[in-house]
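Hey, resending since the last one bounced:
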Amino acid sequence: MIYSELAQDTINKIISTLQAGGGSELDRAVDEALCNLVTGMDTDQGLLWLVVDAGLRVTSGYTMQSGSGALVGLSLDSQQSTALVLNFLSSDDVATEIDRESSDWAPLLNVSQEFDSQLVVGLRARGLFPGFLTLQSKKERSWSADERSTLEKVAALLAVIISYDLDLRRGEQPGKQGQNAT
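The structure tokens again:
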């Protein structure tokens, strides 16, 4: 499997950030990954949406104008979140291009009306769906196969890291769903 230079660079930055912080730098690693993807793909914004309580919430974001912290805290209600999660769960683990005509993605389009093109990919690890990544562009564009592949590779790594982090927060041994750590 060949990784693009941008995918390799982004993955290296994630790993380096986590190693430097002893594994406790997840938010900073995600911010750096989003920054790298947004600037490397010459797009306007990148967001990490995670399932939090009964809905989806932006937990990390990066924009070309304001840097890190973009839209952090923005959330969708449980009905909107359910519709989006079902879209992801009923599709392959591939990056999906959405535009103004993509009615299945209406909840996401409604909160990001200034963007004409978006590329989204779900995060899946060990049968769990913790959320998704999205790259957004204010101008209409087509996303290349290389850009899709890059987002998929970065999402695959982030899914594993985020699932591991969620296990630790629940007091479970990473990779041992439902079993308490001893």
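Residues 145-169 form the longest helix (25 residues).

Sorry for the duplicate.
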